[in-house]
Amino acid sequence: MFTQKLSAVLLLAGSALAYNGRVQEVLRRQPKVGNVTHSFDVARCPGYALHALSETHNGLTAKLNLAGAACNAFGTDVANLTIEVTYETTSRLHVHIYDTAKSQFTIPESVVSRPAAAKGNTAKKSDLVFNYDASPFAFWITRRSAPHAAPLFDTRISSLPPTPIAPVMAGDNSTALDGFPLVFENQYLQLASALPLGANIYGLGEVVASSGIRRDVGTNGGVGTIQNDWARDIADPIDENIYGVHPIYMEHRFNGSTNTSQSHGVFLLNPAGADILLLTPPSSNVSLIEYRLIGGTLDFYFLAGPTPQSVMRQYAQVVGTPTWQPVWAFGFQLCRWGYTSLAEVKGVVAKMRSANIPLEVMWNDIDLYHAFRDFTADPVSFAPEEMRQWIAELKANHQHYVPIVDAAIPKELNSTDFYAPYSKGTELDVFIKNPDGTEYVGQVWPGYTVFPDWFAPNTLGWWTDALRNWSALGVEFSGIWLDMNEASSFCDGSCGSGIDISNTSTPFILPGEPGNFVAGYPEGYNATISGPSGNITVNGTLTYGATAQAALAARGIGAGNQSDVDLNAPPYAIHNANGRLSLHTLATNATHTGGYAELDVHSLWGLMEAEATHKALQAVLPNTRPFIISRSAFASAGKWAGHWLGDNFSKWEYMYFSIQGVLQHQLFQIPFVGADTCGFNDNSDEELCGRWMQLAAFTPFYRNHNIKGAISQEPYVWDSVAAASRTAIAVRYALLPYWYSLFANASIDGTPPVRALFWEFPNEPELFSVDRQFMIGSDILVTPVLTPNVSSVDGIFPGRGKTIWRDWYTGAALNTTAGANTTLPAPLGHIPVHVRGGAALLLHSAPAYTIEETREGPFALLVSPAADGSAFGTSYLDDGVSNPPGPSATVTVHASKGRMKIESKGKFRVAQKLEVVTVLGVAKKPAKVEVGGKKVKGFTFTDAEEKLVISGLSVDLNKGTTISWK
Q1: Active-site annotation holder among 406, 647, 764, 878
Q2: How far apart are CA 724 and CA 722, in angstroms?
Q3: Per-residue pLDDT tens for 280-308?
Q4: Cα torsion at 354, 356, 359, 364 (round to 10°)?
Q5: How buried is residue 436: exposed, middle or buried, by Cβ count under 10 Å (0-12/13-18/19+)?
């Protein structure tokens, strides 16, 4: 959670990214090299020359030597580099440029494993081709299938005019180099590539981007995006670095003359602090992407696509496919910071049941803890034995419990204070240290703390024991919530030695306490007109805004072993919005086992904690799928955990931002993601919360969570929200077989479950920036209401009139405007959902209170034929919890005009029967309906909606059947 009192201190540079117009001052500055400050001229950066080329059956290696005198712009130029080019598959090309001495940091295989290269002569079969100029060295990537098209990545741009970049804060030297040469120094790496003018770029995160899912590349002489890569704890600022680091982008190119498109991906495997810029130089016919890193190597993976979804699948082959989610994870979940006792939590669960709003998982924030200490329960407010009994009751009702785990471990206060996680961790030597070998001390909720060192050999065992002991204490969790794991600390770097560790107070006032009340009115609230429910009066009138309205072999450990590196203040100041890198996190000179410096590994902390927690849960809860939600993440984190979008705000724009956040993380291969529904910070209201509960029901992770001291926003608080929630959750639970199948596919091959519209319709440019709608899989289109005071919403329907879209609720075909918006009715309590023509969806016909009860009920089948009468769908079924996944069955439906065939393959036995089949788009009432060759009478037909409903069935899905109508 976010430390509100620090927000004013931490948001140092909100306007610092704007071009300040002082071109010469920005471009000709005084970089510092060692203790010497001198003028810098880009002409002194000589670039590199390639020699000693050696080709192999799947690539090449060569040496790169400085082509002239070193420029030492932000450190010391590395004279001798090595380049390795490997055609790993026919669609993946790996280009790694590193210092020949191997002293720079590269992520150990134990942290992010590398994909194996395919066997055979992949160089001649690959659709990607590596091209180069030897001197000055530059390279570019083209498609074998389109050799004359513009390169996908092209570094031949050193002579382009420079573009000024504003500094992070007054007096620093983080501005642009004069031009775009290849620079490789011990603390500064730079590489830039040409992009088509106004390119369609997606990804590069984590970020709340003001430009939406399509990243801004700027216009003539302008910088559109500065994506900073440095994980930090901050409440969802716009266009600044936040919790996660994901240096991957997808570019989508459209050819208007042929009406075709192709996508490709570029992934830089480097966790170093970095700026990734999208910009357009003055009077240029190209845009650029420029990488500026303060460490590591240039370790690129190029992904050929050529479709958006194939790019994502290829990225999954690099970083790993997402973890399998337990089926109960798709249920509605509830939490808040400020449930002060178990009695209060029990009351919330009871009120949810009384309101008949399904609740699958109950969570606890840090209120659970004794003295804010991990792995404890307050002996009075959350007595462990009472917790054990209550959690047993939850389990008996097919519900689950998830508690929070913070990153920091509190120090013992004195000789009489015994806190086993700390004392045992000290004994096993599992905590991060200062450079002199003493214990690194930070400050978080419980006071002065230490931090687990995930590189230490004993840490996993210690972490596993801590979780196991916690469960044995009575906190018998079904999953774990990882928070504050950037890692966050309230000290400015290390708290030092000789501190009074008995002082356990936070250096700011907690939300909801005197001096920091969450007392602001909900957004748009007017005291004169708005009613007690917020922005909706008692009679339902809308009043929003009313005014009387692990180490690699032979690889160095990076900055921790380089005597000429400035660990505390790297010469190039990246655009970290906190300012100095150690502020509100660990000091950059903190030391990890093996000699790794925090400067190199900072953004890996959350990833490594997620992996350790995943493996620990496999031991504590054997044979079941670990359920983990983590705030901080790096590439490959989806192998271990899901993610929530952090400490957002109860604002309409943040409901909209949640869509781009979900879509970003599909590309990042962390598909199980969602926002704090109804908003975390500030006060929500009836209209916003109702609309948001509906929207979030169509995102993977569905949890309502808000801040301590704010007004309550559980869905039962307002009658209209309760009604909207029941309706939306019923749709979600009906769609559970579809959701579950999509996530099975994601875990098998990386196919994204939630999709931007153009991922399904890549040749329709009007969709390239659409992020106010989204698709679930290929068959469900969601058009949420994202603004207050309205009863309708505009949405575009892909297919340009050739695709049929039918209303989920009625089955009626929608009359759409080809290539433009269509206005849909959307009164309060209704979220428009449409089914694509050609879909065949296996559903649960009787959504119940819990996922388990829903799955025990019968199935239904919804068929929405395309214009030619065809439809197709598959559903993946298994027990939903086994780890690794056990036997499964795949149910397939093929439909054509007047007929469908249902088949099943696999060893999993499906106990529930198919009871109802609904076929849409049937032109006239059939005279005869047959199931399995036998005539049935139990069917109805609605002429106005062209809907045929066949009920009273008992089809064994293990055997399948045929259904016909005419």
Answers
A1: 647
A2: 6
A3: 988 889 999 999 999 999 999 999 999 99
A4: -30
A5: exposed
Residue 604 lies in a domain: no
CA 45/CA 72 separation, integer angstroms? 8
- Give the pLDDT score at 932: 96
Ramachandran angles phi, psi of 153, nearest 5°: -150, 130
CATH number, domain of 191, equals 2.60.40.1760
Q: Which of 99, 367, 486, 523 is catalytic?
A: 486
Residue 931 lies in a domain: yes
Element (H, E) at 467: helix 459-473
Whole-Å CA distances, 387 to 347, 471, 622, 966: 14, 10, 22, 59
301, 325, 360 - which closes a domain = 301
Count of structural domains within the chain: 2
* CA-atom Rg of the chain in angstroms: 28
The sign of the dihedral angle between the CA atoms of 678, 754, 92, 142 is negative
- Return contacts of 95-102, CB within 8 angstroms, 24+ apart: 95/130, 95/139, 95/298, 95/300, 95/302, 96/297, 96/298, 96/299, 96/300, 97/64, 97/184, 97/297, 97/298, 97/299, 98/297, 98/298, 98/299, 99/184, 99/297, 100/63, 101/556, 102/554, 102/555, 102/556
Q: Which helix (H) or strand (E) holds 390?
A: helix 384-396
Q: 353 lies in a domain?
A: no
Segment 84-126, tens digit of pLDDT: 999 999 999 999 999 999 999 999 999 999 999 888 878 889 9
The CATH number covering residue 922 comes to 2.60.40.1180
Q: Among the options 88, 240, 453, 483, which is catalytic?
A: 483
Tokens 């009359």 correspond to 815
* Per-residue burial over 362-388, b = 16 or more CB atoms within 10 Å of its CB, e = otherwise: bbbbbbbbbebbbbbbbeebbbbebbb
Percent helix, strand, coil in the chain, to 5, is: 20, 30, 55
Per-residue model confidence (pLDDT) at position 98: 98
Q: Find the Cα–Cα–Cα–Cα dihedral 154, 159, 164, 170, rounded to 10°.
A: 100
Q: Are 871 and 865 in contact (CB under 8 A)?
A: yes
Among 828, 720, 834, 702, which residue's Cα sits nearest to residue 773? 834
Which residue type, as a one-letter code, is found at position 893? V
- Location of structure tokens 């008949």: 356
Q: Is 33 helix (H, G, I), strand (E, B) or coil?
A: strand
Q: How far apart are CA 624 and CA 631, in angstroms?
A: 22
Per-residue pLDDT, averaged over 133-156, amounts to: 95
For tokens 């120090």, the residue is 411
Q: Of the candidates 479, 465, 477, which has an alpha carbon nearest to the alpha carbon of residue 421?
A: 465
Q: Residue 490 above 60 pLDDT?
A: yes
The residues, ordered by sequence, that sit 6+ positions from 336 with a Cβ below 8 Å of its Cβ are: 365, 704, 705, 706, 707, 708, 712, 713, 714
Ordered DSSP codes for 634-672 = BTTGGGT-EEE--S-BSSHHHHHHHHHHHHHHHHTT--S
Report if pTM > 0.90.
yes
Q: Let me know if 483 is a catalytic residue.
A: yes
Check: CB of residue 773 under 8 Å from CB of residue 795: yes
Structural domain includes residue 601: no
The residue to which tokens 């992904």 are assigned: 303
- Measured CA to CA, the distance from residue 287 to residue 280 in angstroms comes to 4
Task: Based on the residue annotation, tell me whether 647 is a catalytic residue of this protein.
Answer: yes
Rounded distance between C-alpha atoms, residue 965 and residue 868, angstroms: 16
- Domain boundaries, position 26: 4-200+265-301
